[in-house]
Amino acid sequence: MPMHVAVFSTKSYDHEFLARCNAGAHVLEFREERLSEATASLARGADAICAFVNDDLGRGVIEVLHDAGVRLVALRSAGFNNVDLEAAAAAGIAVARVPAYSPHAVAEHTMALVLTLNRKTHRAYNRLREGNFALDGLLGFDLRGKTVGVVGTGLIGTALVRILRGFGCEVVATDPVRSPECLALGVEYLPLRELLSRSHIVSLHCPLTPETHHLIDDAAIASMRHGAMLVNTSRGGVIDTRAVIRGLKGGRLGSLGLDVYEEEEQLFFEDRSTRYIPDDVFARLLTFPNVLVTGHQGFFTEEALTAIAETTIANVTAFEQTGSPLHPVPSSAGRAR
Ligand code: NAI
């Protein structure tokens, strides 16, 4: 019996990649709606739902999904901070994820942010188009020989370390688990505060958990090198955005690159160009010339979307055939924020 899957937060690219990998194996019902308590009942009659990073899978939604007959939540993401795992376990709903699709996609996007912020190509592009060929204000620095602090040396952090070593950077890292590959690449593991005080650039690649929520706060920023660059392509909540704005205003932070934002579910993945930005904190961020924000596009490569679709369909097929998905998220992974 093919599984009936309600796919939430669908964009044209999700439809295209999932339908191609599914090849008729399951019944996929594509919905544009973001999953929330208001939309969860749309899953009625489905065996499984498929969700993305900003879909709400808190206790309230899980209860509605349970009543609707859903038995599997198949996440199209690696992170599962948006799922109440205890509630899912209590409701007998299995949760699956895509543990690794392309760490290179996110690591390479991180490097794009670093290079753009450093050499100000975003500003140069606009200047040139207006006939302004002056170089004032575009001064960067050589990456070779600079110290980069990588917070979290899992799949993405390690992929970034490889790239950074190619640029001739010194790399220091912090992670409760040391990566043998990073150690072999000459990475020195340090406590977070020491990493912050040594690094010219700090890049965040840890998951969002209660422990890492607002890891970068006022105190952390105060311990950074004056004028350091901070890049976050992990999850928005790892950074206290208001503290970062204070750091930018005081000059402690030299530049900031973000692919994720604490309140991004109100903004990202939609065309809002004909409306105003209702989030004043986000709007303030956009006023800084040394801040570069992309809208959670680190994962957005051909290879990553293919891998996400293949693993998602494999999770659903395994659940259909064996009663458990290929890549389950254990309920013991705890309630993350
Ligand atoms: P991973 O699970 O391979 O690595 C995470 C690493 O962080 C692990 O080595 C873990 O030990 C470490 N860690 C946990 N707590 C820490 C702490 N307090 N301090 C330092 N390190 C800590 O995960 P992966 O695949 O490398 O992804 C990292 C994060 O990137 C994901 O959790 C997700 O939030 C984010 N992500 C963002 C994407 C984007 O499009 N911008 C796409 C995919 C993932």
Give the tags.
Rossmann fold, binds 1,4-dihydronicotinamide adenine dinucleotide, 337 residues, alpha/beta, seven-stranded parallel beta sheet, globular, 35% helix
Description of the molecule:
α7 (180-184) links the parallel β7 (170-174) and β8. The protein has twelve helices and twelve strands. It folds into two domains: 4-101 and 302-333, Rossmann fold, CATH 3.40.50.720; 103-293, NAD(P)-binding Rossmann-like Domain (Rossmann fold), CATH 3.40.50. The longest helix has 21 residues, at 302-322. Helices cover 35% and strands 15% of the residues. The two termini are 35 Å apart. α4 (103-119) crosses α6 (155-166).
Short description:
This protein has twelve helices and twelve strands.
Strand count: 12
**CATH homologous superfamily grouping of the largest domain:** NAD(P)-binding Rossmann-like Domain
End-to-end CA span:
35 Å
- Which sequence of strands runs across the widest sheet? 8-7-6-9-10-11-12
Task: Describe the secondary-structure layout.
Elements: E1 4-7, H1 12-22, E2 27-30, E3 48-51, H2 59-68, E4 72-75, H3 85-90, E5 94-96, H4 103-119, H5 121-129, E6 147-151, H6 155-166, E7 170-174, H7 180-184, E8 188-189, H8 192-198, E9 201-204, H9 218-222, E10 228-232, H10 241-250, E11 253-258, H11 280-285, E12 291-293, H12 302-322
Parallel strand pairs: 1-2, 1-3, 3-4, 4-5, 6-7, 6-9, 7-8, 9-10, 10-11, 11-12
1,4-dihydronicotinamide adenine dinucleotide (NAI) binds at residues 78-79, 103, 106, 151-157, 174-177, 205-208, 211-212, 233-235, 259-260, 296, 298-299.
